[in-house]
Design goal:
Largest sheet: none
Number of domains: 2
Oligomer: single chain
Strand content: under 5%
Number of helices: 2
Structural class: mainly alpha
Distance between the termini: 80 Å
Helix content: over 70%
Shape: elongated
Length: about 90
C-alpha cells in the first residue's frame, strides 16, 4: 500500500508541475483554431468576391488569365533556358 500511495503522490506532483504548461498549450491551441477558422472565412469571402467579379466581367477575367499565363510561361521558359545553358 505504501508504494501505491507514493506513486499517487508522485503523479499529483507531476500534474501540479505540468498543469500551467498544459493550460498554456490548451489556450494556444484554442487561439490557433480561431485563427484557422478566420482564415478559412476570409478565403471563402475572397473566392466568392472573385467569382462575382468574373461573372460581371468575363472578358477582362480571360485577359487577366491570359496575361498571367503568358508571364508564367515566359518565366518558366527563361528559367529552363538558363538551366540548359549552364549544363553546356
Amino acid at each position: 500500500m505504501a508504494t501505491s500511495t507514493g506513486a499517487a503522490n508522485a503523479v499529483e506532483a507531476v500534474k501540479e508541475r505540468l498543469s500551467p504548461a498544459l493550460e498554456r498549450l490548451d489556450e494556444t491551441m484554442r487561439q490557433g483554431r480561431k485563427f484557422i477558422v478566420r482564415g478559412q472565412h476570409a478565403a471563402e469571402d475572397s473566392a466568392a468576391a472573385a467569382a462575382l467579379r468574373i461573372r460581371r466581367r468575363p472578358g477582362s477575367a480571360v485577359m487577366v488569365a491570359a496575361g498571367v499565363g503568358a508571364l508564367v510561361g515566359a518565366l518558366v521558359g527563361f528559367g529552363l533556358g538558363s538551366v540548359a545553358r549552364c549544363r553546356e
